[in-house]
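agent> Task received from the user: take the single chain below, predict its 3D structure, and emit structure tokens. No templates, no multimer pairing.
agent> Plan: (1) validate residues, (2) run structure prediction, (3) serialize to tokens, (4) report one or two observations.
agent> Step 1 OK, no nonstandard residues flagged.
tool_call: predict_structure(input=
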Amino acid sequence: MKNIFLLSPSEFAGAIYFPTIEIIFFNKIIDFSDIDTILFTSKNAVDATNKINQEWKKIPVIAIGKKTAQVIPKQFHVVISEKQTVESCFELAKKI
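)
tool_result: status=success, residues=96
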């Protein structure tokens, strides 16, 4: 079997793990009091926001795709963009 190098922040069985990306969560303060909609473009964005401030869970959410939506708690209504672009998500946000 040939060696398979996985260039990723995550390991996978059978591959030689070669990390090329490191996700670092900054300790930022986010004030959600004047926010109407949140657009999440990745699972990491959801994870980071959870660590910063739980108040986001009171605001309508748009996920750029199904994988991002999967990490958002099930009790929240999440709109998933049909096209996985920030532009299409922004257009959805205008309608919410």
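agent> Step 4: summary for the user.
Residues 43-52 form the longest helix (10 residues).
agent> Done.
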